[in-house]
Amino acid sequence: MIRPLPEELAVETPAARRFWDTWSASPQAQAFEETDWAELEMTVVLVDRFHQGETKLAAEIRLRVAKWGATVEDRARLRMSFDQDQDHGLPRQQPEMDDMDEELQKLLSGG
């Protein structure tokens, strides 16, 4: 089950909402404790600000998501693995990469 994005965080950008949905539906989230969810809440606010133009937040966001195993390399370093045949009881949402790439390109080019 995807944990709902807390309204009080006042997240504005679709990219930050996708970030929340992706992480809350991830296999890693099944093991999240309340402290992890609190960290995800803080991070989604940073992601929201990043997508509003505060690109200097990119490094901080990358450090935070690496601790959760964001990439194949991160998961290898953390010795994480997931059973490929198991759906973890969570719906899989595939972000529309073209939309995300276009949105990021606009942000980084100042457009």
Plain-language structure description:
- The chain is an all-alpha fold and 111 residues long.
- Helix 1 packs antiparallel against helix 2 and helix 2 packs antiparallel against helix 3.
- About 10% of the residues have low confidence.
Question: Which class do the helix and strand fractions yield?
Answer: mainly alpha
Cα shape: globular
Write down the Rg.
14 Å
Report the average pLDDT across residues.
84
Strand content: under 5%
Q: What number of domains?
A: 1
Q: Uncertain runs with pLDDT below 50, 5 residues or more? A: 85-95
Distance N terminus to C terminus? 36 Å
SSE order in H/E notation? HHHHH
Instruction: Output the number of helix runs.
Output: 5
Largest sheet, if any? none
Helix content class: 40-55%
Find the count of extended strands (DSSP E, 2+ residues): 0
Question: Which secondary structure elements does this structure contain, and how are they paired or packed?
Answer:
Blueprint: H1 14-24, H2 34-51, H3 58-66, H4 72-77, H5 97-109
Keywords:
111 residues, 51% helix, mainly alpha, globular, single chain
Task: Give a brief description.
The protein has 111 residues and is mainly α. 51% of the residues lie in helices and 0% in strands. It has one domain.
